[in-house]
Amino acid sequence: MLKSCVSWPVEDAERYRNLGYWIDEELSQILERQVQENPTQIAVIDNDIEKSYACLEKEATRLASYLAAQGLCAGDTAIVQLPNCYEFYVVFFALQKLAVLPVNALMNHNQVELTHYAAALQPKLIIADTKHSLFGDSQFFEQLKACTPQLQYVLLRGQSTWAKELGEKLHASACFEHFDSLPFRKHQADNVAFFQLSGGSTGTPKLIPRTHNDYYYSVRQSVEVCQWNKQTRYLCALPAAHNFPLSSPGALGVFYAGGTVICAPDPSPSSCFRLIEAHKPNWAALVPPAVSLWLDSRERQHYDLSSLTVLQVGGAKLSATLAARMEKELVVTLQQVFGMAEGLVNYTRLDDDEWTRHHTQGRPMSAADEIRIVDENNQPVPQGEAGLLTTKGPYTFRGYLNAELHNLAAFTEDGFYCSGDVVKQTASGDIIVEGRDKDQINKGGEKVAAEEVENQVLAHPAVHDCAVVAMPDPLLGERICAFVVPREDLGQPLTRAMLNRFVRGRGLADYKYPDRFEFIASLPKTKVGKIDKRALREHIANLLTSSQTA
Ligand code: AMP
Ligand code: DBH
After folding, report:
1. Model's pTM, two decimal places?
2. Cβ distance 188 to 160 under 8 Å?
């Protein structure tokens, strides 16, 4: 199955190795080197738990030993769905040591997403949290097992009455204490280490194979750009599994630099301010809507947030107005981060001038990142003009898992990944994100593939046709609007309430639900007969404006 992962052409791989980008080390080495250099330093703070590097390494090794004793071995796959917590990192490194390849699902992923990951990966193991509604009892696990013949093991965080007693063991205070540590053999650093999730623009979410070599380089280079060191204290408030807080430089960057990760359950002011005052992080990463919430929160005056020196913002476009307000009112330096789980990450640099920090999304982190801004015929646009961002480099993937056809469209013939972002580049090489040419809604950093939502709505028997588009939203930037053409031949009129109830019953992640349904007699078409989504976006935007002014 993993044979269908596309790797780098031999000559590129050789070049990346010769230039020192790929060092043929596994991700687990990030932790091992700190155990040599920094064993007593606190690696992770999660509420009242403080764990040193030595502890994290010991507990990851024990968990790996336990899983090996159960029969898991290199090349097996797993689904992990954990909240922001210490155990997330124990599990991450345990699986890396074993060379078991996980996909780290987000906590707000639901039945539809997990079922799809299981179908794509045929995992042997699921590690989840009993707080998630799917894992409160055994029903969903049994259901998955029925269609995933390999699936045998489940390990739960939290109190569980159904997954034997193992569930309770995945708790920070006693991670597999009675398991002796086994030595783990080295694995090929060219191999896939885990699967990252793509926001996607197709009917089913795509999995991104990330290798040890490429991901490790992206972490090291991010640490270099951000100048992280042992004094770095990073507030991890975005979902730990997301590429941004995992690797830009994120928690893995902290571990590489020997600093401390402070886990926050979510990016809300009520969760974060308390933790900032208590644990004094100097860096944090947010999406733009969270920045708005922080700025407008009345709670802010009651807390000492002065330890924060840099606030990274990414995942969706930050307005220059918010950028300026943020630096002034929070007394921080802004770092814009424009990245993608597929690879390429751009940062504004800490010493960039104010205009660059406020108005651009930064520039590629590596000299080896190749950027081409092109028109729809893949021809470069003149410098300074907007075009489609395509890229390749030592940490940008070369193909989604099991997606041969889709990969043909997602890459140019010479291996550049077509990101679907419309950008322009300033004379100094900084990138400004202007928009997007992919069928996706970016709900304040949470990406939703229109087609995935359309398929769910289309499953309703009274729906004849459907098109999902972004509508403007003051806080999130965009929300989801579904235009629905009802079937005429059915007696009972279709209502918004019926559609809402129907979609909510389908087991899709909540953030993918349409925020609004609009009925329409037929979908507008372009000259070439495609659904005219631009017209639909304009239509809903006008409707919103006129309802505001009415
Ligand atoms: P994904 O492929 O799901 O990892 O999402 C990556 C996409 O998020 C990018 O291709 C952009 O469309 C969007 N994105 C990420 N960071 C930024 C940013 N700082 N500004 C604008 N868009 C962003
Ligand atoms: O949105 C993203 O996917 C993203 C944003 C910032 C990302 O993957 C990253 C940094 O690494």
Report:
1. 0.96
2. no
